[in-house]
Write a structure and sequence with these properties.
Elements: H1 2-9, H2 18-27, E1 31-33, H3 49-56, E2 61-64, H4 69-72, E3 79-82, H5 87-98, H6 101-119, H7 121-131, E4 134-136, E5 142-144
Parallel strand pairs: 1-2, 2-3
Antiparallel strand pairs: 4-5
């Protein structure tokens, strides 16, 4: 019976065009992402783009403390973090946020702000100019050592 209830509420979409994926993200209430370290070779996922895209869409994230995820998602600020393989803690975080639209909104707004602060085009441009030894001035002039 539990499997039937779950099947009626969970959809696995498989591979989709990026625009369709973004539309699904925008229609969601939160992102649940349970990344784990491979027991075979210790491989990790790094910082999943799905998490950054969800945050950019203003979604709170429930994820594992895995690889680079805690650098993007601060527990209690942008979402919730749980230990890898801790299904009970992840389920508890999911139930907690499912029951609290105001908390989801607070976390989602903070997630969106973090992405704008760290990953916007302006931030990327400024970092690139710094790496190239250039500085940005008014009227979009670039001055620096070449």
């Amino acid at each position: 019976m539990a499997a039937a209830v779950l099947a009626s509420r969970v959809r696995v979409h498989g591979s989709l065009p990026h625009a369709d994926t973004l539309a699904l993200i925008r229609s969601a209430d939160l992102l649940l992402h349970h990344a784990v370290t491979s027991p075979q070779d210790g491989d990790t996922e790094g910082q999943p783009l799905a998490i950054l895209e969800a945050m950019a869409a203003g979604l709170p994230v429930i994820a594992t403390r895995h690889a680079g995820i805690p650098e993007a998602v601060i527990d209690g600020v942008h979402g919730r973090l749980v230990a890898e393989q801790d299904v009970a803690d992840m389920a508890a975080a999911l139930l907690d946020l499912a029951a609290s639209p105001l908390e989801r909104r607070r976390l989602g707004l903070a997630a969106r702000a973090a992405i704008e602060e760290r990953h916007s085009h302006d931030v990327a441009r400024r970092i690139l100019l710094q790496l190239l030894g250039l500085t940005q001035t008014s009227n979009d002039e670039r001055v620096g050592s070449r």
